[in-house]
Amino acid sequence: MRLLVLVSLLGCFGGAKKSASVPASPEPVSELVQHERLDEPMTNAQVSADAETASGRRYNTLRTDKAARHRRLLVSWKDIVVSPFSGSPTPPAAPPAQPLASPEQKPEKLVIEAWLDLQTDDVGKVVDSIRARIVSSGGRMVSENVHGSGKSATSAAMVFRVPPAQSLVVTDWLGTIADVRSKRLLASDVGKKLFDLALALENLQLTMERLQKLAAQSGPVADLLTIEKEMTRVRGEIEQLKGEQRWLLDRVELATITVEITRSGDGDFDYEDIPEARVYPGPQLAMLTLFDPGMRQRTRVGGGVNVRVHRYATFELDVFPRGDDPMDSRAVLATFGSALYSSYLRNGRRRYFNPYIGGRIGYGYLGGNGSPVIAGELGIEWFKHKYFVVDSSLRVLAYMTSTTDGALHGTMGVSVPF
């Protein structure tokens, strides 16, 4: 390898020597031409001096060219010759690494929905606060249903829409103005569905354009009618897909929040506040008054027990003492009934004065005779607490004997959860 390098150097030096015998540089010739242009006569001494000057300049030019060649050769030598100490050529400098540009991320198409169940002492105030907050958040009300007005409002149902960025802010804010009993959030990505709808619309538009071109051509009437029928079908599908696309985009544009608000306080009570209660047994005081007593005692006062499952099903057993006549035996009533609360009076959820109405059937023993009985019932819960209920009722009884007897049956009792 070293021998090849030396041979290359000698070749370069030889080329430099040959270049030294090159004719004189054109620089003095230009000076002679300049003298000729000036039409100045030149003497022999001047010609001789010019020749010596030109010769000196040629020599200096050759030395300068040789030095430049030597420098270029040394640079080439450092670039290509293998160093005996390093054992490997010097690699060229690598260009600086350029960071890869991340692809543009498209935003997700999310449909955001929320459902909240709130409880507060002042339903009207909470409704007004929500309405004002929705307007300030850039949203809009969809529906609003309030039972009562102002401080007398008992419950409310509201559906409103806000920008997606405000959905979490608004739901968190709702927890600061009322007690949150339940909360549910849902975010559904509909980006793929919107993309599929766009592709389907594009294909249907192409189909419609082809059908329009076919309809513009002349042909049999039957073919034209078939084409028109197909165009009607395609046009209907296009409108249907456009409507679904607009609906999805509207759901993405605004989040939907549904809020149920109920009132809590000393004047309200909810059966859901009673943990694991299924039946309500308790004692009661009863009174029986006959419409046509005959030889029997008209009014008797007794007592018994009652067991109820909320207000849907109740069982009662009442026993009354003998009358003044020795032939007048004890009276017994065993009845089963069902009753309903008034929906206009909060379905029995108030603490005081919850009226109800119902009917009863059963068996009655009176005056030594037993017979089936039926009754209509009107009652009221005077006081309702989660640990006990005080109520009373008034019933009109009919004993289904050969000679039907009628009576009033009144009760006053206490029920406790079990």
How would you explain this protein's 3D organization?
This protein has 418 residues and is an alpha+beta fold. It is 37% helix and 34% strand. It has helices at 2-20, 26-37, 44-80, 123-136, 164-177, 191-216, 221-253, and strands at 110-120, 140-147, 155-162, 179-189, 255-263, 280-290, 299-309, 313-320, 331-341, 352-366, 369-384, 389-399, 405-415. The chain has an eight-stranded antiparallel beta barrel. A five-stranded mixed sheet has the order 2-3-5-1-4. A hairpin with a 5-residue loop joins strand 12 (389-399) and strand 13 (405-415). Residues 1-56, 73-91, 99-103 and 266-274 have low confidence and may be disordered.
Give a quick rundown of the structure:
Mean pLDDT is 77; it is low at 1-56, 73-91, 99-103 and 266-274. It contains seven helices and 13 strands.
Shape type:
elongated
Helix and strand element order: HHHEHEEHEHHEEEEEEEEE
**Mean pLDDT value:** 77
Distance linking N and C termini: 108 Å
DSSP strand tally: 13
Q: What structural category characterises the helix and strand content? A: alpha+beta
User: How many H/I helical runs?
Assistant: 7
Beta content comes to 25-35%
Please outline the major beta sheet: 8 strands, antiparallel, barrel
What share of the residues lie within helices? 25-40%
Strand order of the largest sheet: 6-7-8-9-10-11-12-13
Poorly predicted ranges:
1-56, 73-91, 99-103, 266-274
The gyration radius over C-alpha positions equals 55 Å
